[in-house]
């Protein structure tokens, strides 16, 4: 699959139990062998497929009426072959850095429109100014995991434990300078193409 150029639209889809479950249009910031960086701007629309068997139900954001990303936008650092990404958020009128969010998810699988993954619910969060990190959504992972990720619960937990161990050891496998990144003011909010749910995908 082709590489994406800075400023191009990249579609990040989630594949759940062999079906497209969710999508959002991002903007490419960087696409290299070692790192795929995308930006999800405020106002970007979410895509929820209309057809499917949905064995674990519809995406929870759809049920909640959460149809677009809001706020300052989020920067996503994706590592090829690695089952997590690092999300960077900002908040407030001064666009202050909020912290590092270690999002457990499938390693990115490239498509003609972008890449596919699957969020694993369980995450780690290290808020700006705090001395250490904390687990997020532990109860949700325990409740939804057996149906969403059958046979993979231990594997997903192990990746979270690996990240925790690296953080506790003072390891930094990403450039902390990304917290000072700002989007190009010339960029417009991307949209989902008409066939976003129909392009081929592979199931992990």
From TrEMBL:
Residues of the DUF402 domain: 58-169
UniProt cross-references to InterPro entries, sorted A to Z: DUF402, FomD-like_sf
Domain of life: Bacteria
Protein name, as recorded: DUF402 domain-containing protein
């Amino acid at each position: 699959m082709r590489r994406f150029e800075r400023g191009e639209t990249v579609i990040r889809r989630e594949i759940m139990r062999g079906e497209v479950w969710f999508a959002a249009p991002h903007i490419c910031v960087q696409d290299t062998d070692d790192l795929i960086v995308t930006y999800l701007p405020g106002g970007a629309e979410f895509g929820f497929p209309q057809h499917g068997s949905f064995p674990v139900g519809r995406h929870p954001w759809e049920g909640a009426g959460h149809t677009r990303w809001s706020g300052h936008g989020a920067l996503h650092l994706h590592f090829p072959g690695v089952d997590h990404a690092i999300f960077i958020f900002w908040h407030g009128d001064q666009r202050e850095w909020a912290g590092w969010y270690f999002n457990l998810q499938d390693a990115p699988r490239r498509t003609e429109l972008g890449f596919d993954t699957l969020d694993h619910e369980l995450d780690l969060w290290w808020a700006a100014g705090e001395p250490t990190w904390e687990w997020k959504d532990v109860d949700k992972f325990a409740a939804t995991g057996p149906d969403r990720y059958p046979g993979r619960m231990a594997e997903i937990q192990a990746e979270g434990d690996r990240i925790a161990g690296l953080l506790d050891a003072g390891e930094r496998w990403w450039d902390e300078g990304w917290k000072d990144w700002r989007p190009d003011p010339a960029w417009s909010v991307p949209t989902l193409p008409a066939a976003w749910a129909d392009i081929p995908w592979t199931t992990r």
